[in-house]
């Protein structure tokens, strides 16, 4: 675990965030300090310790397979930054995943 | 130098639940775009997923049918990547604790031997939305987004395109049988990512693998595998190297193509899905779900052969469709003491023909297994004759009802009274002296004419065998 | 009655007695808002007509015999909670233009109870911050000293209530975002046990930590709101199935006598402002005078809590904020001719600095090769932190601690992110452990800046916690 080798632009690309050079430099310094602070966690022995997520131990929160009529579909499309007909419009995607 | 091919599949199967994996939106194809949506499957701020119990059940049932272990504990993870068909820009999937582990399916090789194709695990996730491509833009329809998707990750045990298709056919048959998916390839119910590598024969280390993603049709998969294996062998033979990459199958040109410029290695940054609590399956639940897994095709075929004395072919045809097999067995059991082979003959030549002509399926016709059984018992007992039975069947098929009631109401019972029939034979002979003369002149076929006349006179109800005997005797005594 | 003096309880009673109608109350609120908010800057948007219409409906319900406790009570809503037909900016440019198509469950419950959604209040962008200075739109001011921050991220909620321009408000708390602004503004801020209140419709920051809670003038008011908000929700699988307590009966006869109150020594360290320490000590003395037994306890893993939080929360946030991509709603960059640039530029243009910082931090700690060292490890240390509390609660009924190391600081004073994060020192651990915690006013500095104290209770002891807080509140009267 190390705060060295923290390539801000690489991480920004993973997060799909375009960063300016100044921004990247500034973040690099600030986050480097924060990551150094995190290193204190290395002092602890967590062998055999289970992670805690919610703390209340609930399991099996299921929903039955009963359809609920969709309402207000126009309200969703109304939020579309760009639409064509009933679809959300995007610049043409050249290669399909 | 000879080469061996190694193929491994990741098969995505859309489950036939009524609603999506994490929300209660209706699942239905053909609806107007973006009409079966809600804040959850649209990835709206504040929306939260809630697990569809039926989807978990279907996945576990599929796992049981495929011989997998079902661990007690299972959990979901976030698989993080950005793509417009992903409303949240992460997919809720399973990474560390899938619902089913291990298992596999047996396929038949051309030489008649069997090969066991192992499964690594089966996990549950949500399907992406649909992107439609137009001339100058692309458009997204989120109706499909959120469909429960069961991913069957197979081990790389396949060695050829033929084996791969046999594996997919076996999977499809099984999943349709268990009732968890329609596996309709045209509708994209079952898509596979195909991983292919080759290595020199005898080498143990696998070669570099290439992935062809998102393939539907078995024909396409077969062609893609054959092409890609050949391409890789050709590359290696000429001293080249196979690049690890994702390629696209171009069905029109009949070749795989490199997806240039595509980010091939994703860092999915998996972490446990904090919006979902874990799944803990107790023995009782698993046992209840196991009880709902029907007897599988292979076992059913074998049992039907032994229990009903069916030849392999008949058992194969009937067992191929669960509804048909259920119908047949009900009828065969109710038809005792009529032999199973008789029931299967009638079922296959008459009933299935009517089903085919009607365009529906066995469950939508009015004929019941009990009615078929009764019809065949009436025939076996001589209460009706063959032609009458054949005539009644289409009526029962269209309108339902029970044959004995119809026979009684219309007096269709077979006439087997020898003296009554003799009277008809005598009448026919008396009315047709020319045919008698023909018979005496050596035209033995004229006997058939008299049989026909008697059948007509009896309105088809006479016992044809008895009539034939009486006609033969009477004529010989002239 | 001056508007600023209304509490939920007193307003409910006055409306029951016919002394005031909901419409009159809401109109008075609007007038106050228009008069004061120029200075306080708590409100982002206010649908005045909508609020009056809802108030009118409440009055009709009352006339028809409805006696719901919250009928006609106006509630200010932190701008990350979805209310159908209203904006929900999360104080971010990336959600400009977004209109919500649905009600959050907490809003549906308030509406069912006849409460009136009255205005949307400012916050740190996407709940990331401790001062409300990270809002993309405006900086809210502390009503006690307009040159100072109200705290964050629920700064608008706290300021509106403290500034007499709201009767009560909803906030959210992930690492202290209800409790710290409550302390800075001199009001009551309650963070329920994780899982007590539905998060459906509440824009997620850190899914395993976020909770909605009431921000009110009194503990009684807090209990009245909690009664309507608590309860499992089929739309939120992380809600707990525990039955909802009866708060009113829990608060009746609330007393500190015989309660064992623990002081975790790790929270009483140098570095806390002397005036804060003084006020907290005085609060402890009041508890002792009222008959509580004060016990020294230790929560040894406290020093690791911040590191855990600043790994877990940004990690979850980095995924939760991925959906803001310019595709289905919100801001889309004009400079986008392909999908990749559509994403990268829309997000670059739409998100503020702190949000970007945390997204990058969160993405990094989850990235290939780092998961075990950061997120994996942090969630395990979280268990150790939780165990500390469990052990302490074997010896005491409640814990008493400061809420923040200082009173409200000046706008612009804390420039360095890390020093801002240290504000959450005392509130983070209870969040990580999922425990209920409340900030109650305990006094003010010589300059008149409020200081609160925090009570923490065992898991699901929300009602006893409020009873304890109520009893303490009585000692302050």
Task: Walk me through the structure.
The complex is a heterotrimer of chains A (97), B (478) and C (477). Chain A has 3 helices and 3 strands, in the order H-H-E-H-E-E. With 97 residues, chain A is α+β, with helices and mostly antiparallel strands. In chain A, strand 2 and strand 3 form a beta hairpin. Chain A starts with 7 loop residues before the first helix and ends in a 6-residue tail after the last strand. Chain B is built from 15 helices and 17 strands. By secondary structure, chain B is an alpha+beta fold. In chain B, the strands form 4 sheets. In chain B, strands 1, 6, 7, 8, 11, 12, 13, 14 and 15 form a 9-stranded mixed sheet that branches. A 3-stranded antiparallel sheet of chain B has the order 5-4-16, with no helix packed on it. The mean pLDDT of chain C is 97. Chain C has 16 helices and 11 strands. Chain C is 39% helix and 12% strand. In chain C, helix 7 runs antiparallel to helix 16 and helix 10 packs across helix 12. Chains in contact: A-B, A-C, B-C. Strand 1 of chain A pairs parallel with strand 2 of chain B, so a sheet runs across the interface.
Features:
heterotrimer; A: 97 residues; Histone, subunit A; two-stranded antiparallel sheet; C: alpha/beta; Amidase signature (AS) enzymes; eleven-stranded mixed beta sheet; 16 helices; globular
Layout: helices, strands, pairs:
The complex is a heterotrimer of chains A (97), B (478) and C (477).
Chain A lengths: L7 H7 L6 H18 L23 E2 L9 H6 L4 E2 L2 E5 L6
Antiparallel strand pairs in A: 2-3
Chain B lengths: L2 E12 L36 E2 H13 L7 E2 L2 E4 L9 E4 L6 E2 L2 E5 L5 E13 L3 E4 L3 E5 L6 E7 L6 H18 L11 E11 L9 E6 L2 H20 L8 E5 L4 E4 L12 E2 L6 E2 L2 H9 L5 H12 L3 H8 L2 H13 L5 H19 L10 H12 L5 H14 L3 H8 L7 H14 L1 H8 L5 H12 L6 H13 L2
Parallel strand pairs in B: 13-14
Antiparallel strand pairs in B: 1-11, 1-12, 3-17, 4-5, 4-16, 6-8, 7-8, 8-11, 9-10, 12-13, 14-15
Helix pairs in contact in B: 2-3, 5-6, 7-8, 7-9, 9-10, 12-14, 12-15, 13-14, 14-15
Chain C lengths: L7 H9 L5 H19 L2 E3 L2 H16 L10 E5 L26 H8 L3 E6 L33 H8 L6 E5 L5 H7 L2 E4 L19 E6 L2 H11 L17 H5 L8 E5 L9 H16 L3 E5 L7 H16 L18 H12 L2 H14 L5 H21 L5 E5 L14 H5 L6 H6 L3 E8 L5 E7 L5 H15 L1
Helix pairs in contact in C: 2-3, 5-6, 7-16, 10-12, 10-13
